[in-house]
Amino acid sequence: MSENSAGNASGPLETALPKGYEPADVEARWGRHWEENKTFTPDPAEVLEGGKQPYSIVIPPPNVTGALHMGHALNLTLQDILCRFMRQQGKSVLWVPGTDHAGIATQNVVERQLKKEGKKRDDLGREAFIDRVWEWRKDYGSRILNQIRRMGASVDWTSERFTLDEGLSKAVREVFVRLFHEGLIYKGNYIVNWCNRCHTALADDEVEHAPKKGKLYRIRYKLADGGGELIVATTRPETLLGDVAVAVHPEDERYTFAVGKNVILPLVGKEIPVIADAYVDREFGTGCLKITPAHDMNDWALARTHNLPVIPVIDDKGFMNENAPAAYQGLASAACREKIVADLDEQGLLVDVADHDHSVGECYRCKSVIEPHVSEQWFVKVGPLAKAARAAVPAETQIFPPQWEKTYYEWLDNIRDWCISRQIWWGHRIPAWTCEACGELLVQTEDPTSCPKCGGALTQEHDVLDTWFSSALWPFSTLGWPDETDKLKAYYPTSVLVTGFDILFFWVARMMMMGIHFKEQVPFKHVYIHALVRDEQGKKMSKSTGNVIDPLEMIAKYGTDSLRFTLTAFAAMGRDIKLSEKRIEGYRHFVNKIWNSARFALMNLPGEPAASLDAALANAPLANRWILHRLEEVKDEVENATLEYRFNDIAQSLYKFIWNEFCDWFVEMAKGDLYGEDEKAKDATRRVLLTVLSETMVLLHPVMPFVTQEIWSVLPGITDKELALAPFPARRPQCRNEAAARGMAFFQGVVGATRTIRTELTIDPAKKLPLIIDTADGYPGAQAVLTENAHLIQQLARIETADIGPGKTGPRASGTAVVEGARIFVPLKGIVDFGAEVARLDKELGKLDKQFAALTAKLSAPGFAGHAPADIVAAEREKLAGLEDAKAKLAELQERLKSALVEG
RNA sequence: GGGCGGAUAGCUCAGCUGGAAGAGCAUCGGCCUUACAAGCCGGAGGUCACAGGUUCGAGCCCUGUUCCGCCUACCA
Prior knowledge:
The protein is α/β, with parallel strands linked by helices. Helix content is 45%, strand content 17%. The strands form 9 sheets. Strands 7, 8, 9, 10, 11, 12 and 13 form a 7-stranded mixed sheet that branches. Strands 6-5-14-16 form a 4-stranded antiparallel sheet. A hairpin with a 2-residue loop joins β28 and β29. α22 packs across α26. The longest helix has 34 residues. The chain starts with a helix and ends with a helix. It binds one RNA strand through β8, β12, β13, α13 and α20.
């Protein structure tokens, strides 16, 4: 092995393949080769001037803070299959890689780093902190990109982008400013999801809900006129300080007496009204709802419809503010809750406390509890944008699988304005300035120096934009927009977006909105939604549960191609993938099989065969005609499956062809010619072997780029050693051959039946047996197929002599089988006890009986002959006849055997 | 509460427009046959969740039920 490895290192082109496939070496070498040669860097001119069709994909940019996980691995594999396939189809393919600056996530990483040094971001100040993040990015930001490299992704590295790089920042400003001047961005005081820890607003979809055990407190609110009380249920008693009303259902007769009156707000003492609103659920709690507009989303909405004031009592860090009674000011909200409960109890206003399970919003980044909070934020008015994005599906953009359309519509139909400001430092700072002197608000792409109105000093908005704001522009910002670059002209709109459904809303819908609005064209023609990768139990992989299968570890152990093939084989549309290491290991065997079949081929291909394929086809043996026929079918299967995103079918089709057909049958049958003396036959079979192997490498290359390229580079007669740029193999209609397929099926049946007899009767494998076949009732080509391939039957079924002909018959003491009408005899004399064979035939007959009964029932069912299509009826009748024949023959053969048994 | 998906061999899953149930892994038996023991040959193993319906015919279409998973809204 060692000398082979050394040979490998010197260069792949001259060296024969080493005995074992060494993925790490091969992957590193070809990965470097592709990048250094810019193999995957297309020239826009070939589209704009050369008339080539464009095919483009923008990678879903992983977070710079991220590490490659199985979801990425699947995502990259599928995109790479599409890109490599489309190159084979002659398209000009651009696959844009890049990373996302991931505002909150990245800021948190660096803040954690600072914490270890005993510092906080405020100690550094904004500028220094941002410098620090850039520094971090310089050191660690390429980690995920290098991991993408290891997947073999055929991205154009010269097109790599970062959502915070200069060009993209320009695009972000352009979009913000234009939306603002179009009235689609506004600023206002609204209630938002607030993370006290991250100290920022979050979008609705950045809030995750988790079940929590809480308490439900019931509190008395006395009527101001002394005419009774209302009991209100709440999980957050501390917010009561900001209550502005109590609401009941308008038809709730228990409370009609109170509507329109005032109640006294406990501990505060002020009067607040009792209002009626159908929003209130009569069944829940007491049916009385306290309204705290500043600290509850729904209360906020109710307050607006009822014109109630908004009184925040908790500040943006989670402490009680000046609106709270003096006794509570400055308390953390949790401490305040305790004090309030105690005070209420003391005053006899607390009815009771009960356990209460409910789901609580958490920050998707730091898992702190989200507190609704009123503050000044920037919003995108999404209504008009969403409408256009909705209308474009499926007319201009199709979603695969289509069931996701409904989810997409659902979300867009219920969309609320998008809060885009974040109170953090790492991100695109909002391009808005306020004049300190006259209050003038400037929103523009270029930094202003002073107020154009009064010349006063300007302060830029402190907030940065939601990370998804820049991600939403990704399909065109990466291509150079707002400049009209050649790249943009050639490759926008992109061909397909490949992603998991978890970011259908976050990202896909927003790209649709922005793409349509700013480019007047959808950003992608197809959206392919792939599965989530789960663990063996179907659970989401996560670090905390420790069920993560690390793709990099799998690559190290089994090679990239094995991992890619596994993910491809499991990527059936619309289903989650339950992955286990076992499966990856299993498909490594397949890589090894391919490798060894190539080694076999090379051993038998001293150079390029002299014969052309057409010459080789003349008088070609069955195996050659058959495998070439199958190759044509596989080309169709692979092409159609890829175009229809049926990735698992690509894998399945190739697996079956390579292993079960090419290796198990063709290669075994070809050995006769390859090892034989007939030079002409040898050369012809070599040509077929080379043709099938090389074209199979092309077909398989999109799924397994490395091993195929490595093999390709040592195949004789290949002029262009760059497999990634080789065209999809041309069709050869002259190789279509149904007769060969039929003949081969029969041949396989005969060999199989013979092998079964041998093994089932535990005949010593080394023992060569005679074989007799009666072809009298076989299909018309049977005799020819068997005589032509008699030597192969001998070889494959370990037979001494094959005596084939119509009416031939074996001794009564024979192992027997019936294949498509032909009777097979394996004389058993002195070899085995006949009892075993009688029993085996009983079993076979039992199977036939079962099938026969089922088919008879079907055919004789009332109406079948009349209603079913004629061709089906005919086919079923033929099947039945075949069964009947086989049954009769087998029974007769068994009788013969039994009589031999009796005679001893 | 609303929506979506799943239930097929011991395990993980295929099964396109309805026409005699498939693969991989695991298992059992036999083979170191000169590309591959990471291999070769053969066997066993399924009332396709349950109940109805449509049809000449249902794993596939329709209705309902039961479990499982996910998404989404709400939870005072």
